[in-house]
Design goal:
The structure holds 2 protein chains of 2 kinds. By secondary structure, chain A is an all-alpha fold. Chain A is built from 1 helix and no strands. Chain B has a single domain, classed as Up-down Bundle (Four Helix Bundle (Hemerythrin (Met), subunit A)), CATH 1.20.120. The chains are: A mainly alpha, B mainly alpha.
Chain lengths: ~50, ~260
């Protein structure tokens, strides 16, 4: 493998790693935000009854 | 209605309003997170274009020198993130507020990720320049120690019970790690190292086009770091709000 191949491989790994981290953060935000919405609904139901 | 009844009624109205206000705050925070995404991603793509296609080929190293357009910004922005860790950890030890601790944790995650990328991209250049992937040079070794300190910070937070004692230990470790940053930065001046302090062209100076690309990627990586930090901090705030709301819901359902 030439140094250009290593360079391409390193860049691919860098952006793959960053992309995975960003997707994982977005998923966590969606999940916790979903939990909050659900809890707010439960709160409203408990308040009505 | 007595004064106490009026106060209770006011308090109930405030509590009822709180979810609506919180909802709009979260909506704004999520929107800002998306704005950061839509700013950072095009900037990074433009940075890649500039690094690979616009910047001139370096005279001695050839194409492998192009690793520097992201290696250096990752390093400098990881130092910046560890600076935030220092301030937030000191803030937590002085004030004891959870928000300081969450800020430190978010900054550690971004700084650690960037530091990992520095350690991943550096050897690609080292292999071409020195013929080896790794050498126990002062800059490389101190960077590895910095990485290990923050790896242990994340291990501590993952495996120790989530209590105030753990948060204090983490803050102390965060401060120790951040204090290592000047050692990493000045290691090329304090010790005799192989690691370059700068890279040169035939004229012995950084080419203006190269300098422009480096400045651009520095800003792009900084904005990406802010985007990641914002998201990680938002998760902490959402989790805190969820835990509080869960306690309220359980209390109300039991009544």
């Amino acid at each position: 493998m030439t140094s250009l191949h290593y360079l391409t491989l390193a860049y691919a790994l860098v952006w793959l790693g960053l992309g995975i981290y960003m997707i994982q953060l977005n998923r966590r935000i969606q999940r916790v935000h979903g939990d909050l919405v659900e809890l707010r609904e439960r709160m409203e139901r408990a308040g009505r009854s | 209605m007595t004064r106490n009844d009026a106060a209770a009624a006011r308090s109930m109205r405030v509590n009822e309003d709180r979810p609506a206000r919180a909802s709009s705050n979260w909506g704004r925070a999520l929107l800002i997170s998306k704005i950061f995404d839509f700013t950072a991603i095009p900037l990074i793509l433009a940075g890649l274009y500039l690094a690979f296609l616009y910047a001139p080929r370096e005279s001695t190293m050839g194409d492998v020198q192009r690793i520097f357009y992201f290696h250096v910004p990752f390093a400098l922005n990881s130092f910046l993130a560890f600076g935030v860790v220092l301030v937030a950890s000191i803030g937590f030890l002085l004030r004891g507020k959870r928000s300081w601790d969450e800020t430190a944790l978010a900054a550690v995650e971004v700084g650690f990720l960037y530091c990992t990328l520095v350690l991943l991209t550096g050897p690609v250049w080292a292999r071409s320049a020195w013929g080896v992937w790794w050498t126990w040079d002062a800059r490389l070794t101190s960077t590895l120690i910095l990485w290990l300190i923050f790896a242990s910070y994340l291990f501590l937070r993952t495996y120790m019970a989530d209590d105030p004692r753990m948060r204090r230990y983490a803050a102390v470790l965060g401060i120790l790690g951040a204090l290592e940053v000047p050692i990493v930065y000045y290691s090329v001046q304090w010790f005799s190292t192989q690691h370059p302090t700068t890279f040169i062209t035939e004229r012995g100076k950084l080419d203006p086009q190269m300098a422009m690309v480096l400045r651009f990627t520095l800003i792009a990586v900084l904005i990406l770091g802010i985007a990641l930090f914002w998201k990680r901090r938002l998760i902490g705030r959402l989790e805190e709000a969820r835990d509080r709301l869960l306690a309220d819901v359980e209390e109300r359902e039991l009544r």
